Amino acid sequence: MWPPSILIFLILSILSINHLPLARARGQWCVVSPSATDAQMQANIDWLCGHGHVDCIPIKPGGPCFEPNNLRSHVSFVMNQYYQYNGKTEKACYFRNTGIFVFKDPSYGDCEYDY
């Protein structure tokens, strides 16, 4: 049997591993392509938010992802939500060829992107 101090260390290590930056770096996110037009981005938001495909409260005023208040930030957040909760497939990030994959966590401040 291991000494109690080793057991406590192991338990705390397991619980805290998700809070390390390197642990969060392993993932894939879907965001809007830099070449997407404003019309394309707005169409994505309209489809995702207007039809209840994702929770759009985080990008509304007062939400953790409202700032910066711009179309590109808002659409990237909701596109990633859709991707993460719809099988993480290429099709779930297609959005008429406006979605791209990134491998660095796009979360910022209180705005946390799911992965």
TrEMBL record:
| Pfam families tied to this protein | X8
Chief subcellular location = membrane
**Would you indicate the residue range of the signal peptide?**
1-25
Keyword Lipoprotein tagged: yes
Protein name (database record): X8 domain-containing protein
Task: List, for all copies, the residue spans of the domain called X8.
Answer: 28-113
Gene Ontology cellular component terms for the protein in this record: plasma membrane; plasmodesma; side of membrane
Report the subcellular localization.
Cell membrane
UniProt keyword list = Disulfide bond, Glycoprotein, GPI-anchor, Lipoprotein, Membrane, Signal
Q: What is the lineage of its organism?
A: Eukaryota, Viridiplantae, Streptophyta, Embryophyta, Tracheophyta
Q: Does the keyword Plastid apply?
A: no
Q: How does it sit in the membrane?
A: Lipid-anchor; GPI-anchor
Gene3D superfamilies with a match to the protein in the record: 1.20.58.1040
**InterPro entries in the cross-refs:** X8, X8_dom_prot
Instruction: Please name the source species.
Output: Brassica campestris (Field mustard)
